[in-house]
Amino acid sequence: NQVSRLVQAHCVECHHKNGIAPFSLETFKDVAAHAGQIKKVVANGTMPPWFAAPPAKGPSPWVNDRSLAKAEKDDLLAWLNGDRAEGDKADAPRPRTFDPDWKIGKPDAIVKPSKPVNVKAEGIMDYQNVFVETDFAEDKWVQALEVRPTARQVVHHVLVFVIPPKKEGEKPSAFDAVARDERQGYYAIYVPGNCTLVYPEGFGKRFPKGSKVRFQIHYTPNGTATEDATELGMIFAKERPKYEVHVAGVVNPALSIPPGAENHAVPSLLPVPFDAKIIAFLPHMHLRGKAFRYEVAPKGGKSEVLLDIPRYDFNWQLRYEFVEPRLVPKGSILWATGWYDNSDKNPANPDPTKTVKWGKQTYDEMMLGYVEYYRP
């Protein structure tokens, strides 16, 4: 009656048959068989994966908060530490179902590469950047998006960028040469437990005609060589939406992290030139990423923390979506700060003796604070 619902609400979205997790937790037998491992990762906070600091008071501001409340965690651990009784089967919730095909429904258009990426059996693969041309005759308005790998077992996460054609006479700046695509903001994402973006009626994203699509894919070899052809499915709005959804990047491509630094801060700011309502945040760093924070400073007002991530984990590229979009008035300054651990105390650090600069490989670093918003 209780434990089954906790597991279903917080775990089963990944831990189901053919899901991205390494085993299923859909049945009593599944949970009982993995009780020791569940107890360990719940007790130490590794699972469920959620890294936003809890609110000082009141309910969570995040619609996709998968963390366990203290009472839920206590109940689950009490059951795991006890006799693990199954209880009355009549009290069990209905099983969740997972569509093996497109979760958003049949797409109006699918963007996919002409050939798959070869994923090796073992070792570490650099980020793969796959570019795909499109041939839409006009701009499109997209209401639902889904990123679908064909070999989910080896795909850790995907960021999808839409790169519009350059305007006539436009010259790339030095900033563009380093971070142009990233600054444009992600168009769609695939992360464990989240592969869709579905906007309500009246909202949508513009897909400019003549654009390229770039799939930035992080593969994690699992012992068997395979192929993957990640694709993007889109459902178009029936008419131009009232509100256009945008993604901005609060970016600092000039970062330079000294050798051995345990808590190196890299700030960046974004002036807000109009009233904006923030829908969601997605921070992005690499292996030295330690913590991340978004703050807003209204014009003439006091700075306020919007999202605090005291323990960033590169293994989970999570998107934090507000229950109620947050209004940021014109004239505000949006701050993003990333903290980095480039010391030998960071077990994921590729080389603590190196000064780390901006780069697309995991042994380099990025400081990206994505902001998904619309203009009210």
Topology:
Blueprint: H1 3-10, H2 28-33, H3 35-43, H4 70-81, E1 109-111, E2 117-119, E3 128-133, E4 140-148, E5 155-163, H5 174-184, E6 188-190, E7 196-198, E8 203-207, E9 212-219, E10 226-228, E11 231-236, E12 243-244, E13 246-251, E14 256-257, E15 264-271, E16 276-284, E17 289-297, E18 304-309, E19 320-328, E20 333-340, E21 356-357, E22 368-374
Parallel strand pairs: 8-12
Antiparallel strand pairs: 1-11, 2-10, 3-9, 4-7, 4-8, 4-11, 5-6, 5-9, 13-22, 14-21, 15-20, 16-19, 16-22, 17-18, 17-20
Helix pairs in contact: 3-4
What attributes characterize this protein structure?
6-stranded mixed beta sheet, mainly beta, 5 helices, single chain, 4-stranded antiparallel beta sheet, globular, 376 residues
Main beta sheet: 6 strands, mixed
Integer-rounded radius of gyration: 22 Å
Shape type: globular
Enumerate how many helices there are, as a single number.
5
Termini gap: 43 Å
Order of helices and strands: HHHHEEEEEHEEEEEEEEEEEEEEEEE
Low-confidence stretches: 173-179
Structural class: mainly beta
Mean pLDDT: 92
DSSP strand tally: 22
Bin the strand percentage.
Answer: 25-35%
